[in-house]
Amino acid sequence: MDFKGNVLLVNSPLFRESQHDYDENVIPPMGLAYIASNLKDNGIYCNLLDAVYHKMGVKEICQYFSKTTPSFVGINIFTTNMHLVKEIVEKCQIRTTFIIGGQAAKFLYHEIFNWNTKNKIIVIIGEADFLFSALVQDNDNAISFEEERKNPPRELFKVDAKSPFFPREISDLHLHREFLENEPSKNKNGYKEAFIIASRGCKYSCAFCAAAKNLNKDNLIRRRSAQSIKNEIAEIQSLYNGNVNAIRVLDDLFLRDIQSIKLAGKIFNKSGLSWRSMAHVLSFKDINVATLCDLRKSGCIELFIGVESGSEEILKKIKKFHNIIKIKETFKKVFQAGISIKAYFIYGFPGETENNMSKTFELAIELKNYAKVFGVGFRASAFKFRLYHGTKIYNDFLLKNSMCNIKIMPDNTLSNITGRNLFNFTSGNYSAVSDDCLNKFVEKTNLLKTF
Ligand code: B12
Ligand code: SF4
User: Fold this and answer.
1) CA-CA distances (angstroms) from residue 62 to 47, 65, 89, 162, 329?
2) What is the pTM of this model?
3) What's the whole-number mean pLDDT along residues 430-438?
4) Mutation test of ligand 1: which of 54, 78, 196, 304 has the most ligand atoms closer than 8 Å to its C-beta?
5) Which of 168, 214, 390, 434 has the maximal Cβ count within 10 Å?
6) Do residue 144 and residue 204 come from a single domain?
7) Which atom of ligand 2 is nearest to the CA of 205?
8) What integer is the mean pLDDT of 120-142?
9) Which of 12-21, 378-387, 404-413 is predicted least confidently?
């Protein structure tokens, strides 16, 4: 990869060593691509290195720094890989300024400030589309929220709805698609897919999720205008010249209610493309099958729906405000309209019993059987619960265990039994069952699919 400028953005790796044994589809880092696009619009050339896509480990990334000597390195951080980002920063051999951000940054900045490096560290909490380039350009309006007098210093910046750098009108943000290296991406169904973000923020507050509304109160939920989404779709079609036949909308919650479902139908209608997106069970509560048939006609082939659990007791605990009846009703309606569903399940919530887990498994089987009746696709994707910084479950856990130093590691046992690497990590087993029992539920649920 040619290095064009003095800013390098890194999509941080999930594994310490460079891995060559996974061939799962990799989704591009849209947040970093928006930051890169704004830098470009300001005349600052930058490179985006996707370490997940290139299967680079800590060593290769540090070597890349030495080869390219960027003045600024922006890197995202997640609960899952915070120890790797620390290692990258501490092992870096060049003089640079690290700018660190992403969803987990707001809960980790104290820890980040203590990392052992001679380089300056800036942490940005919130959406950095505009602030990142302002900092690179030394804009006087970028005022730090907190500073730690180390040599060199550590600085914290916050972008919330009150900040002049807050991307209030997300319809106006333009994404330069050259930063999405792996687009178009060929997915398992053979579609050549491009990726878009149509909204930011989620209205729900699930207790296991870092995108929950109650954790992001300083931010506003924003939606792009239908016209700006249509323009992006037209741009994708012209750029890839017929080489894309599907769109994946990566928003937390693209289909959230009856209005958004009707609008999505209008946006994609006549685009000639197939599309997939996230939805919530409750997004469909006022919807009839006729409206869903219109959605199918607009090209909607598959929806991603977080069911999470088949136990009412667990659903209440994790603040997932749907119930089993609603889940079944929704799945039947969506299947009846000819739309496939990829359903997500989580096993191993704190205190979860074998009985709870059996209910989840039985529900997954029942949902699969509905799909069979309607002759549509159903895929189950099951995960072992992980503790993410700042989530309600994490905070509750902290209250009970004053010393809570979570470390998430690749879960090789689960990867071996599920044949999936990128999403099997473990931060421990908080449930009431043995590791073996928990892993078996994940394994057998993952096998449930119609075709
Ligand atoms: C799409 C998505 C993905 C995609 C793309 C990931 C990526 N690298 O961007 C895929 C499927 C690959 C993915 C992977 C993972 N994800 Co994910 N993902 C999401 C999701 C649903 C939307 C993210 C998005 O594109 N939003 C739209 C863009 C515009 O916003 P954004 O990404 O937040 O970026 C803005 C700001 O955060 C900030 N920012 C982002 N990066 C950086 C970097 C710097 C340097 C700075 C300064 C600022 C900054 O500025 C951006 C522009 O405004 C979020 C949920 C959410 N709402 O955050 C979860 C979420 C971010 N993912 C999460 C996790 C844990 C992961 C994984 C670690 C899971 C795993 N495998 O173990 C991996 C990370 C691997 C990696 N390095 O990519 C968690 C993070 C929680 C946490 N405490 O760590 C979230 C919050 C979901 C959750 N369950 O809670 N993810
Ligand atoms: S899990 Fe989905 S619905 Fe729940 S808060 Fe997170 S993004 Fe929203």
Assistant:
1) 15, 5, 9, 36, 51
2) 0.96
3) 97
4) 78
5) 390
6) no
7) 5
8) 94
9) 404-413
C-alpha of residue 103 to centroid of ligand 1, in Å: 6
Task: Give the number of the atom of ligand 1 that is nearest the alpha carbon of residue 80.
Answer: 68
d(CA 78, ligand 2 centre) in Å: 17
Checking if the pLDDT of 4 tops 60, the result is no
Neighbours of 166 (CB within 10 A): 20
Q: Is residue 13 part of a domain?
A: yes
- The answer on 143 and 210 residing in a single domain is no
Kindly give the pairing relationship between strand 222-223 and strand 46-50: unpaired
| Ligand located closest to 123 CA | 1
Sign of CA dihedral 312, 313, 314, 319: positive
Q: Please check whether residues 140 and 187 belong to one and the same domain.
A: no
| Domain tally, the chain | 2
Residue 293's domain spans which residues?
A: 183-446
Using CA atoms, how far apart are residues 364 and 360, in angstroms rounded to an integer? Answer: 6
Q: Say yes or no: 271 and 410 in one domain.
A: yes
Give the position, in ligand 1's atom list, of the atom nearest the Cα of 29: 9
Helix, strand or coil for residue 405? coil
Flag whether pLDDT at 410 surpasses 60.
yes
Residues 397 and 437 in one domain: yes
Q: What is the pLDDT of residues 19-72, one digit of tens each?
A: 766 777 889 999 999 999 999 999 998 999 999 999 999 999 999 999 999 999
